[in-house]
Design brief:
Oligomer: single chain
Shape: globular
Order of helices and strands: EEEEEH
Number of helices: 1
Strand content: 15-25%
Structural class: mainly beta
Number of strands: 5
Largest sheet: 3 strands, antiparallel
Helix content: under 10%
Radius of gyration: 16 Å
Strand order of the largest sheet: 3-4-5
Length: 123
Amino acid sequence: MELPGNNPWRMLINVYFNPGDDGTALDFGYRGTPVYIDLGFDSTAASHLYEIDWLPGGIVWSVDGNIVHERVGWDPTPIPHLPMRLHANLWAPRSEQLSGRIDRAKLPSTANFRSISVSGRPQ
């Protein structure tokens, strides 16, 4: 889940499928399936609760308790079977289409996260 800098009214979600098991050389995601989601609000104007519910048969993305997108089955990529990894950061991609033009005068920059939590489902 990403909040691209060129449009705070949308978020980018993605599923990276990696068929390799833990310890293989393929420990990074590939075959991504990015989708832009219109949030209906400016994500920079206030704090919001972003959730990913990863189930064996699908993935559900929610914002402030409202489902904004669901992915089930194998189309266009399989639902990953390996444990999810969480990365929280601020990055400036070279793609202006993704994030807009980088204002180098504002670099370096920082990101502050008020709260991050990860919980698993009972097996």
